Amino acid sequence: MNPSTLSVLQRMEAEGAENDNRESEHARKWLNLEPETGSLLSVLLRLSRVHDVLEIGTSTGYSTICIASVLQEQGGRVTTIERDPVKQARAQANVAEADLSDYVDWRLGEATDIVAALFGPYDCVFFDADRVSAPAQLNLLLPKLSRPALLLTDNALSHPEQIQDYLRRVDELPGVIHIVIPIGKGLSVAHLP
């Protein structure tokens, strides 16, 4: 990752921590990806050589920048979904500051509705939004995944009761290799052959 992109991420880390400490309402928190999870995400995407990534849950664009910086190198694009127009506008400004706008397609609205209308194919999906809706979104996405495919999901350890149905659904997929890595809030990593 180049120094100017790292500088944007570091600014976002500081601003995100300040915002989230100040805000009491969950919907107004930015809940940026932890830096170590962002680094692992970047490594996994580089090693997997993905080109077409779907991100569910943009927030202010921290993870979008982590993803797009890899896809810039690999000639790919990320489609990212956010339901909050204020967060999406902030994300667009952050991605532009990181000079990565050419590698991002923006979608605004409810993730499950948008996922149903997307065509794909995607070789990676990063779930970082509503964990309760993730199993339904996964079912909609399965026919839209290229193979092999990588499924990455944040908050796998921080919200066990909310994410258990998703993790169970992933484990049911034929031939899947699945592990939860105890980094940040827990990153679920699944490889579909």
From TrEMBL:
Would I find Lipid biosynthesis among this entry's keywords?
A: no
Q: Where are the transmembrane segments?
A: none
Specify whether Disulfide bond is a keyword of the entry: no
Q: SUPFAM superfamilies attached here?
A: S-adenosyl-L-methionine-dependent methyltransferases
Q: Which UniProt keywords apply?
A: Methyltransferase, S-adenosyl-L-methionine, Transferase
* BP-aspect Gene Ontology terms: methylation
Record-linked InterPro entries: SAM-dependent_MTases_sf, SAM_O-MeTrfase
Q: Which GO terms describe its molecular function?
A: O-methyltransferase activity
**Name listed for the protein in its UniProt record:** Methyltransferase
